[in-house]
# Entry
Amino acid sequence: MVMHAFPAFNQFLSVLFLFATLMSGCSPGKDAPVDGDYNIAPLPVVMDTIQSAFLIDESTWIQMDSFDEATFDPLEVFQDVFERKSGYRIRSTPDRKDKQAKEHLILVVRSPGIIQPEAYQLRVKPFGVIISAAKAEGVFYALQTLRQLMRLDVLPDIEEGSTRSWAVPAVEMRDGPAFPYRGLHLDVSRHMMPVEFVKKYIDLLAYYKFNRFHWHLTDDQGWRIEIKQYPKLQEIAAFRKETRVGHYSSYPEKYDGQRYGGYYTQQEIRDIVAYAAQRNVDVIPEIEMPGHALAALSAYPELGCTGGPYEAATTWGVFEDVFCPKETTFKFLENVLDEVIELFPSTYIHIGGDECPKTRWKSCAHCQGLIREKGLQDEHGLQSYFIQRIEKYLNEKGRQIIGWDEILEGGLAPNATVMSWRGTQGGIEAANAGHQVIMTPTSHCYLDYYQADPSTEPLAIGGLTTLEKVYSFQPIPEALDNKASKFILGGQGNLWTEYIPTPEQAEYMAYPRAIALAEALWTDPDRQNWNEFTVRLSHHLELLDGMNVNYSKSFLKPTVDVSAKSNGLNLKFKTALPRQTIFYSRDTLSGVWGNAMTGESIPVEGAGPVYYRTEHSPTFHVNYQPSLSIGATITASFSPSEQYPGGDGLNTLKDGLSGNRYHNGKDWCGWRTDRFVITLTWPEPLEVDSILIGLLNSPGAWILLPEKIVVEGSSGGSDFTMLTEWQHKELSQGRQSVSLDLADGPVTRLRLTIEPFKAIPEGLPGAGARPWTFLDEIAILP
Ligand code: TNX
# Structure
């Protein structure tokens, strides 16, 4: 598989583990050990380590008080894993007076004094283990912590006939979550995941103390939940004709020609929900409405505004055909939800609500009539009416809705919980209005985004959400006062699967970022510490290996911050782990490499690439093209768009650095305007020989090369003379460098007039719309 493309990393990891083990407290020494030494993630609230250990072997008993109202047995998961790893099951008794259980005891005490239901105390002493909690949930988490403390999962399952005993390091801790809602999401519409994988996903989630599994079951590309009253959802909506190959902005579009699909039977769903419940995980189903409904419409075209025919989507994005707010549609959705409620005991039902284009509703007589009849403002009002009607239906059945932040448009349903994904603004607005909020901003919580430099990673949707970025996630935005903050229930990581076709790839994208998120949601912000986390993390990678998780090692790739000077570059290398040396070189053939430490400022002079790597990482490079532009000031008749402003505004165009293929990278500036003019001005007149203009050609993303570029020069005053001109021609896709000769002669100013096409030509994606123009560099050569 592509995911483990760097075998040297494995070697590196073993070195790392050795290092981390030596550094930390498997056997705490005289120096006061720090909390991190016990490598628990998420980090517990209070932890005191003691130098001794408790032995768990075949003579060990568990005595657990009864937790009467408990909906699950908190021992079971621990017992099962323990048995697989040890070759025997720990005996248990509810009876405090049980004679056999006197020695060698794991005591589970019911302590109503512990306020939070998920909180616990865990004490490991030489003579036994004492767990105290008010609820079964707390006991469950104490046992997950114990499991990590024992490093139960590092070793493979035991062979038949043998047994293992375990030395558990002594410790005293008090622990409980910072937020009550700690979620992970999985999209199974774009790519369906096997039941066994869904269970493994839930296993890991619970291991890291997440308590919500948001299951995205329906979308344009496939309906994945069996609904008995609507058999065509299984026969038709669960399948798509074929699937887009490559990135959806690539052009021309390619498809694999293979029918794809499937669904979970109600039996499988019940099984998964019960499996999750054993792990204190609530499964929240999502049934998307009114948008992202194309698969459902393909089976029941009468639920759309135009009547169809429709087909489940074969590519990604947002589609105009959505549920039409007719009585038949509401009846359909209510019937569907009736079955959903039967399957999922969760109080919350997610009804989607995101990305619903209003195109069809605008030209639909029924919709327009309904807007008038109900006295609604517009189509946003109609969306709000839609959601409120569904909310009322579900509230009457004792359930609460969650919707993506678009449900704010046109007015929020009275009891809705908002899931804020387009940044935190929607969440802030909802919290201020007294609604509950779950924070899941793309910036920190989108696990489908790249986790390292895209040119070194398997294909993903875009963006960049590094492990460190995820770790820095704070669900409560600063903009909220204390009162409004109370409405933030917590946060969630989202795993959309457009570019995640397999369980292996899902694990690669989710881990280890999910561990960072777990800590952001569980551990008090005062105790979060990135450097210390990375040391603990190295132990968790071992645990993940033991659990056969195909996690990513991308966070170990070194990164570099570059700033350009007139004669070269200033580089600052960075590694995720502290105290790692970075090697850099101008010429790898020469074998000469310099050393640098994280954060050290390294000047390099002259043109050409700079290569860099750590001891066991692959080699990366930055490319530098020094030019006269660096000494110029730059202005433009229109600023680049807010969406694509460049890492350093217009200066991005004269920093000597070119962008890679991803237009949302910081090396690109993007415009979506009519003709615009860029002017470079120097303090002194200078001789110019040629100009190199870096442009992006990506028709699939509506980014075209301009129709015309005119370059003019001035040697002072306001007069410009024409120097050269470039006319549009067909070039291949990706970054293109246009090189033009400039007539010699000193100039103090150069002016580029860039003329984009007024509209995207017929035959290209987005035909008729205004195209984008992307520039990454304007290099003037002497
Ligand atoms: C936006 S997040 C979507 C999903 C996509 C995702 C890709 C949200 C509510 N809608 O339909 O899969 O972006 O990152």
Remarks:
- The first helix runs from residue 7 to 23.
- Residues 354-355, 404, 421, 446, 448, 461, 496, 498 surround TNX (CB under 6 Å).
- The mean pLDDT is 91.
- The first strand starts at residue 46 and ends at 56.
